[in-house]
Amino acid sequence: MNLNLFGHDGAWLMVDCGITFERVSGSSDTRIQMPDPAFIAGCRDRLVGLVATHAHEDHIGAIPYLWPKLRRPIYTTAFTAAVLRSKAAGRGTEPPGPVIEVAPTAAMQLGPFNVQWLPITHSTPDTCALHITTPAGSVLHTADWKLDAAPVVGPAFDAAPYQALGRAGVDAVVCDSTNAPSPGFTPTEAEVAKGLAELIYGCSGRVVVACFASSIARLQTVARIAGDTGRYFGLMGRSLHTMAGCARSVGLLDQAFAPINSAHLGYLPREEVLVLATGSQGEPGAALHRLAGDSHPHLSLEQGDTVIFSARTIPGNEESVQRLQAAFRARGIAVVHADAHPEVIHASGHPCAGELDAMYRWLAPPVAVPVHGEPRHMAANAAIARAAGVRLPLTGMNGDLFHLAPEPGIRRRAASVGRLELATDGSLQPVG
Fold first, then answer.
1. What is d(CA 174, CA 368) in angstroms, rounded to the nearest whole number?
2. What does the pLDDT look like over 19-29, one tens digit per residue?
3. pTM of this structure
4. Which CATH number fits domain 3-184+348-430: 3.30.565.10, 3.40.50.150, 3.60.15.10, 3.40.50.300?
């Protein structure tokens, strides 16, 4: 979950506000948790706004819950705005607002902060980095990103704005660390499309593809493969329908994306069925979980059918995913998982070491602040930054205050931090 605050001259700008899902000890249940905004809520009159960089839960999921404590304008791109409104409506929470839609190349003055949106590729469309400038200096907040030359949905990554920013000079870079320990470069979505097409072409029975609902490129890819292979295409899972609806509403999906009513899938010949389903992490009650237990109301799988996990296993979900796979295999249903498949059938949305090195060399900042990862990920990011010529990589923990300009440094535990948990009655309760 992410909540970042940038401060200057007594004013604050919030970037992202997300949730995480924590497993209950000794149970398969999970609880929604989010940052406790007590620090900024206590001075919300000095909060000029909230910028959401993209439509992932760990970046926007807390906004519908925490906005009543903040009540400040939200600025984001069209797809993220559509997802935010849809999620708030689905949860029955107060619609946050105003939500001000901006172009992916917009520039806006928010209090003392001049914010320039910069398109950047990720595993969900309309993601933007932010170039934030004040009289004291400037910082690039990368958000989550990768260098994708062929993202399937949306424009390819363009290095030119980042190279230009490096030539103009930027004082600090706040940068995604998720894949920093991994060498090389993250595969493109076009490579995933090729791998999935080859795999599905070789399947004779029904095919079910499980992926993250926010991966709009993956939805588009599977829809095109369905057309190319003469299969009918269906969606199973509420989050898939929600994300697809949001993507359609802002024109991100082409005419190949034409899912049929999922209630009709069970009546079709096996070789004509291709389904996208939720539940790649083994979530109880998700479409894939019901298919594994042969309890889905619209479709029953059988021996000779194939389930493809076009998603990595998130650490902590290994046991639930293994149980799900075992349930399919026990019924003679083939299982292909991206974690073990030799070809590319899933791609991360985060930069590996080669991409981080390229970004740091383009930008040439004197200061880097690795974020978005565990300590080992941020340490790896810092090492890459130093090797690329960054003079001062700064790593820290939640609650630390980073002085980025004019004199860089860290004030440890400058703000109290904690977590709130969504209780069964809908209230927010402190954790621990």
1. 6
2. 998 877 766 67
3. 0.95
4. 3.60.15.10
